[in-house]
């Protein structure tokens, strides 16, 4: 097991098969249930998450779940597209979600060091929660993100389950989603370059010069764009925006505070925070 976890190439292969098994389990559960489509999809999604969680326990590494965030929406949406007519709205949704998912998964692959490396946030939670970590691991690290991303992709799935048609206004949120992916990708590339040639405690160039979390801004805008595409075409389904809202709340109340708290241990963080906005890459008035 130790040799497998230390070998990056072998770790990639293991992750690949874990996700094949998880996807197969999800499809089997979905097809076995005689429920309304959105509930079947939810239960199947949870079943795939449980499989992923089991392997994360086997390998003693919660980061087995990390690619799930970006792989899940692509798999779900393309599964929904099977046998369906590809009208304009559906094509726009497929382009946006695929562009987002492929880019984010590629970024994960670039930073993936092997199964012997776990995200610092999970390690911190394990140290803080002790005996209760297995529960936190399943509910907080695996299940909650799955439910949030399920809510984010649900509007797009609805577009494949109904006769909703696009209109010209759908292009505005589509552009927002594509722009969000570009923003997120640019921020990640700039951060990778900074880490290779680190100077100072904080990155103060590019998008990061004025925003502490431009990558998170891209993630937030992406799902507002997807939800808006569907809701513009079908205004009475406004409640489908709840997934994007929940995702935004997650970043504002969990992800950003955790990242800022870690940065706070570095000298000069207070001044850096005063000079740099949390999300919007716009110069802050002093």
Could you please describe the fold and organization of this structure?
With 286 residues, the chain is mostly helical. It has helices at 2-6, 8-32, 37-58, 68-81, 88-111, 120-129, 133-161, 171-196, 214-233, 242-263, 269-275. It is globular, with a radius of gyration of 20 Å.
Features:
mainly alpha; 286 residues
Quick overview:
By secondary structure, this protein is mainly α. Helices cover 71% and strands 0% of the residues. The protein has helices at residues 2-6, 8-32, 37-58, 68-81, 88-111, 120-129, 133-161, 171-196, 214-233, 242-263, 269-275.
SSE topology:
Layout: H1 2-6, H2 8-32, H3 37-58, H4 68-81, H5 88-111, H6 120-129, H7 133-161, H8 171-196, H9 214-233, H10 242-263, H11 269-275
Helix pairs in contact: 2-3, 3-7, 4-5, 4-7, 5-8, 5-9, 6-7, 7-9, 7-10, 8-9, 9-10
Strand content: under 5%
State the end-to-end CA separation. Answer: 54 Å
> Mean pLDDT, as a whole number?
93
**Rg from C-alpha positions?**
20 Å
Question: Strand-and-helix sequence, N→C?
Answer: HHHHHHHHHHH
> Fraction of residues in helices?
over 70%
Total beta strands: 0
Could you name the ranges where pLDDT drops below 50 across 5 or more consecutive residues? none
Number of helices: 11
Shape: globular
Structural class: mainly alpha
The major pleated sheet works out as: none
């Amino acid at each position: 097991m130790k040799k497998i976890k230390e070998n990056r190439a072998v770790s990639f292969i293991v992750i690949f098969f874990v996700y094949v098994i998880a996807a197969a389990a999800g499809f089997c559960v979905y097809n076995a249930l005689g429920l309304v489509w959105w509930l079947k999809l939810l239960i199947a999604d949870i079943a795939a998450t449980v499989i992923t969680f089991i392997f994360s326990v086997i390998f003693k590494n919660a980061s087995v779940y990390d690619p799930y965030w970006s792989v899940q929406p692509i798999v779900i949406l393309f599964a929904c597209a099977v046998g369906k007519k590809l009208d304009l709205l559906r094509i726009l949704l497929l382009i946006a979600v695929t562009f987002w998912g492929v880019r984010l998964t590629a970024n994960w692959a670039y930073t993936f060091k092997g199964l012997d490396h776990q995200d610092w946030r999970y390690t911190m939670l394990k140290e803080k929660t002790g005996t209760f970590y297995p529960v936190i691991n399943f509910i907080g690290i695996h299940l909650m993100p799955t439910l949030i991303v399920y809510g984010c992709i649900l509007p797009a799935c609805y577009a494949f389950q109904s006769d909703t048609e696009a209109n010209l206004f759908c292009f505005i949120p589509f552009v927002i989603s594509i722009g969000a992916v570009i923003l997120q990708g640019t921020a990640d590339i700039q951060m990778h370059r900074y880490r290779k040639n680190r100077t100072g405690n904080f990155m103060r160039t590019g998008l990061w010069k004025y925003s502490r979390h431009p990558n998170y801004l891209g993630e937030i805008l992406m799902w507002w764009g997807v939800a808006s595409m569907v809701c513009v075409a079908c205004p009475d389904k406004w409640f489908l925006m709840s997934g994007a809202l929940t995702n935004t709340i997650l970043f504002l109340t969990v992800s950003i505070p955790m990242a800022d708290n870690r940065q706070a241990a570095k000298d000069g963080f207070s001044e850096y925070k005063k000079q740099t906005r949390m999300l919007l890459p716009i110069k802050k008035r002093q």
